[in-house]
Amino acid sequence: MKHRIVVLGAGYAGAYVAGNLARRLSPADTEITVVNAEPDFVERLRLHQLATGQKLGALQLADAFAGTGIQLRLARVTAVDPGRRVVTVADSDGGGELGYDTLVYALGSRGDNSGLPGAAEYAFDISSRPSALRLRERLNSLGERGDVVIIGDGLTGIETAAEIAESRPDLSVTLIARGTLGARLSTGARDHLRRTFDRLGVRVLEHTTAESVEAERVLCADGAVLAADATVWTAGFAVDPIAAEAGLEVTDNGRIVVDRTMRSVSHPEVYAVGDAAYAVADNGRPLPMSCASAGDTGRQAIVAIIGRLTGREVRPTKLLYYGNHISLGRRDGIVQMVDDEGVAKPKYTGGRTAARVKSGIVRMSLWATAHPTFGLPKRKHRVTAVHAASTTKARV
Predict the structure, then answer these.
(1) Same domain, yes or no, for 140 and 225?
(2) Are residues 103 and 134 in the same domain?
(3) Each residue of 280-316: pLDDT tens digit?
(4) Crossing angle for the helix pair 12-24 and 351-370, nearest 10 degrees?
(5) Are 97 and 242 within one domain?
(6) H or E element in which residue 5 lies
(7) pTM over the 0.85 mark
(8) Could you tell me if residue 343 is inside a domain?
């Protein structure tokens, strides 16, 4: 029987891994199934644009996987049972179980506002397309002089504030920053960010903590009360608890602990990539949740899975975080590289050049997802006899 590879999630990491495995492994020995809740690929890097009413072209996963032999299962993952090696899914037909021999866990992350009273009821986030669309609907309903409050000064918060302020100059946009705005950027990049926010009219409250969210206002720990026709939460992300509930070894925030090859340290038939993986980079620091980390962890998982299934040496690939590419609206941005310790280098690139770099990265990521087998060797590797036989598990 064929060796069954099941990939959970078709975001930047999952789609990349699935396409590459399909290209490099012989279909005579393997079958690859991708489980994803939506029929198209979600450009998470552009969800702040979607929230402001910009149109994003939808890449259908069925089109991306056409001709690869990948089976696409449109369903939501509800549980993983590593003891039986099955995944439980739910769909319009009631769902069922999928058996696997190798599992690639790429379910990503979502917004986490559970620690802030009122945020779940009244705040919007842009960690998924449905939530970004809800924010867009809310922004469209606001007339002139509406108030938007963004909680969180990470990259997502910065990009969202700039995008809303540029696309809706009639709105008043306030960003709540727990510390100094752009604290992890170089001095020059921080100054550039402040100038851009001044130009766009973004008000920044530094060293401020949101204490609770209400229907039309945000209450801060220092007693400040901010009018808010729309509150956007960008201050935290979390992974789905499915891995922890399955008994996989995870961190305190639920990320799967993996070895240098992206293999679960507790369940060797499971690999984790992207935001769901807790992977230590070559500099000894954990890789952050990011699109770049999705590519690095995915590349290592591909090499490891193919190596182990075909009896080849599993070689390490680079696991490094090079820096941040920040969009500040459509015509401005910041490219900030970091050193081996993750500290911002003194030099940065800003303005239209940085905006073009970020736009190019986004287009390249989408193109690579749409063409998962481009440039790869045509020769497909055969699975060795020791891995060829599948275990007799339930499948749907």
Answers:
(1) yes
(2) no
(3) 999 899 998 887 788 899 999 999 999 999 998 899 9
(4) 50
(5) yes
(6) strand 3-8
(7) yes
(8) no
